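Re: the request from the purification team.
They wanted to know what the chain is likely to look like in 3D before they choose a buffer screen. I agreed to run a prediction and write the result into the notebook, where they can find it.
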Amino acid sequence: MTGNRGFGIDIGGSGIKGGVVDLDVGQLIGERLRVPTPKPSTPDAVAEVVAGIVREFGWTGPLGVTLPSVIHRGTVRTAANIDKGWLDTDAASLFAKNLDRSAEQIVVLNDADAAGVAEVRYGWPGDQRGVVVLLTFGTGIGSALFIDGVLVPNTEFGHLEVDGHDAETRAAASVKEDEELSWEQWAKRVSRYISVLENLVWPDLIIAGGGVSKKADKWIPLLDVRTRVVAAELRNDAGIVGAAAASAVLVPPRPPLGS
């Protein structure tokens, strides 16, 4: 059931989404399944939801799972938008235990890194040139940095200090909703955040992702920044697609014909 297909799970602060992905074109095969993130989002509670989604699809091959965390050699090192119980958790082993399979069949990566992998691999060819930053605006702000298509993992640009504040506490999409900001008011905050980021890494392109990218026409034209900003092509499915693409390296090669 692997072949040119993969399976991805995208764990966010509000929802956990999963689905089967066509790895040739970077698109979901059929509908994705979304389940609200448990509250509290403890490792065991989230792992149980992940296992339920995988079993719903009957998927038995390797899979990729994203977390809104720094993932260093498979271990969770930050937990800004999930339960603090995740800190120092061996995530692959946890998911493997709940799915009754080996940890070698599971790859775990940062959610924004996964979304960036999907955009760079399956998006416009220009996404692969120069310094490209993907920003996911959701419960927080995730980031992924690429240099000529090569990922520099775990950048965490959403936690840059901007005017004395953690950037995502002022410019995340959730803040727009919680504070009932207009598109103009929120775009001004996003512009200020991006201007600080621009002076740090001088990107050639910024890709805006997350659920709010579906309404990109309402706010991207309002940004006052020097870098070209475009909406993510895969929109809110990028995390699932990127996770599945990352898991493809775990698929054993097919034996030659006649062997």
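For the purification team: Residues 251-259 have pLDDT under 50 and may be disordered.
Please add any questions underneath this entry.
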